[in-house]
Amino acid sequence: MTATADYTEKIPNNVNLHEDRRLQRALESWQPNFLNWWESMGPRLPTEDVYLRTAVNVGRDGWAQFGHVAMRDYRWGIFLAERDQDRYIGFGEHKGEPAWQKVPGEYRADLQRLIVIQGDTEPASVEQQRNLGATAPSLYDLRNLFQVNVEEGRHLWAMVYLLHAFFGREGREEAEELLHRNSGSEDAPRILGAFNEETPDWLSFFMFTYFTDRDGKYQLGTLKESAFDPLSRTCEFMLKEESHHMFVGTTGIDRVVERTVQVMREHDTDDVILHGAIPLDVVQKYLNFHYSVSLDLFGGETSTNVANYFTAGLKGRWSEERRKDDHRLLDESIMVDALVDGQVGQAEVAALVGLNTDLRREYISDCQNGVNRWNGILEQAGLEQRFRLPHVAFNRRVGAFAGVEASPTGEVLSAAEWNARKDAWLPSEVDKTYVRSLMQPVHERGKIAAWIAPPRAGINGKPFDYDYVHRS
Ligand code: BYC
Fold first, then answer.
1. Which of 150, 174, 398 to mutate to test the pocket of ligand 1 (most atoms within 8 A of CB)?
2. Of 3, 171, 280, 355, which is most buried with the most CB atoms under 10 A?
3. Cβ neighbour number for residue 403 with a 10 Å cutoff
4. What is the 3-state secondary structure (H, E, C) of 189-206?
């Protein structure tokens, strides 16, 4: 196993692909299907080339190269973090045994399912974002969008490698299916709900990369703990790329809020619509939507699936190693959010079945950091408004609260009350139409749309007015 990619091959990789001709051929025959998918479902805006980061290594000192590349020629590769020869399983009933280099027969179906679900989200997000290029607020943002897109494409490659290398014919069939399902399709939708929602505007894109990519961070974090070592190593490397995606979201929302605040102060008004900025209450409604839809991605508050995954060693907890318990959890319990007599409450359940809740809590506290950061911008400007994460029961379609409607403060409502008030909490048609009306492209070097502040710095030490994208 080498840490450096072999770039002489058709598929850059650090998994010695050339030593396994069958696997190499299988992946080389999937490659044109991937490229066809990229052409038909990937970014729609034609470009000549884009200033992109390409993964070339997994080592500590420098793992990526920057340069202008034509997107179709992007070097999507297969990279696994370096192998730790002494890695042992850290949790569940196999704790202490050596990590697996092959898939144990008894866990084959479950592991395949987890990999397919993870793999399905990656191309889904590219599909959701395919029209955004046409309305980018600057070349800097356009480039970031494309960076996120090509790396989600690479994450698809990461999962497809595992399917091809370890799951035989079924794995190859699943790899094909990953290109056949499409976000929002009636006949063959993507597996998880949030990945069938539209990303129709850039505020949605920033919210998606803040909240939904962050689910990715936490799910990948649990799969990084997996006893199945190739999955663990793949996820470790994917997490490295993922942090830029969340940076795009965090700073994107920063910049929207900064611009709004600037307009509010300049004109001494909350009514920023007249001046082409996005009102704070509209930002809050978008936040409410993307946060609640992303909470659904954690599955139910209680789940026997997750208990089985943990016990088998397939999926661990966030920061498993740092947890101060027996890592088996057979005798422990946890309080989870639950519907108690029709009201939002808590219930005590076995820790194992509550693991989705455990992970979701880690996620929620991370999401709160973003809210604090955006509130810091409001506070610094001397404004009294504050953003808030809505209650976990708000707008849920999966889990304990799927059957009820609740307000952002967690009050259970009748259907009539919900219908009467939902436009105050979720983006209304009027809000969406307004936000879309702002989405006029700014594709000129150094220029930026009026609804968003410029970034503090460019990419890889380049200035904001660098020619990040050459249009064709
Ligand atoms: N939509 O036992 P439960 C990312 C199904 S994002 C539709 O509570 P479990 C990215 C569930 O399949 C990270 N269906 O669920 C971000 C089950 O069906 P069956 C993606 C749902 O299994 C941005 C039933 O409901 N990675 O990387 O404990 C851009 C009962 O559910 C949903 C992963 O998710 C839903 N939201 O947990 C690009 C990791 N939720 O078995 C990329 C892999 C649940 O009854 N997946 N269901 O037919 C998993 O770990 C788990 O499967 C889940 C669900 C956390 C998703």
1. 398
2. 355
3. 10
4. CCCCHHHHCCCCCHHHHH
Closest CA to 81 of 109, 111, 60, 51: 60
Over pLDDT 70: what percentage of the chain?
Answer: 98
Cα 293–319–59 angle (5° rounding)? Answer: 100
pLDDT in tens, 328-351: 999 999 999 999 999 999 999 999
Nearest atom in ligand 1 to the alpha carbon of residue 304 is 2
Best residue among 107, 110, 117, 224 to mutate for probing ligand 1's pocket (most ligand atoms within 8 Å of CB) is 117
Read off the DSSP letter of residue 59: S
Alpha helices in 208-228 (DSSP H): 213-223
Identify the residues whose C-beta falls under 6 Å from ligand 1: 114, 117-118, 121-122, 125, 152, 192-193, 212-213, 215-216, 219, 296-300, 303, 305-306, 315, 356, 398
Considering only CA atoms, which residue is closest to atom 15 of ligand 1?
299
- Tell which residue, 37, 38, 45, has the closest CA to residue 472: 45
**Distance separating alpha carbons of residues 13 and 165, to the nearest angstrom:** 13
Give the pLDDT confidence of 394-414 residue by residue, as tens digits.
Answer: 999 999 999 999 999 999 999
Structure tokens at 404: 């009820």
Give the pLDDT confidence of 90-125 residue by residue, as tens digits.
999 999 999 999 999 999 999 999 999 999 999 999
Q: What pLDDT, on a 0 to 100 scale, did the predictor assign at position 57? A: 79
Residue whose CA is at the smallest distance from ligand 1 atom 48: 305
The reply to whether the predicted model has a pTM over 0.90 is: yes
Residue 40: both structure tokens together: 């038909």
Give the position of tokens 């939902």.
422
Cα distance from N-terminal residue to C-terminal residue, the chain: 40
Question: Counting every residue, how long is the chain?
Answer: 472
**Angle at CA of residue 134, ends 133 and 136, nearest 5°:** 60
Are 139 and 464 in contact by the 8 Å Cβ rule? The answer is no
The closest residue, in CA terms, to atom 34 on ligand 1 is: 118
Nearest residue (CA) to ligand 1, atom 25 = 299
- Tally of CA atoms within 13 A in the half-sphere of 271 that contains its CB: 1
Ligand 1, atom nearest to 223 Cα:
39
Give me the numbers of helices (H) and strands (E) for the chain, helices first please: 12, 7
Number of the ligand 1 atom closest to the C-alpha atom of 152: 38
**Cα 413 to middle of ligand 1, angstroms:** 27
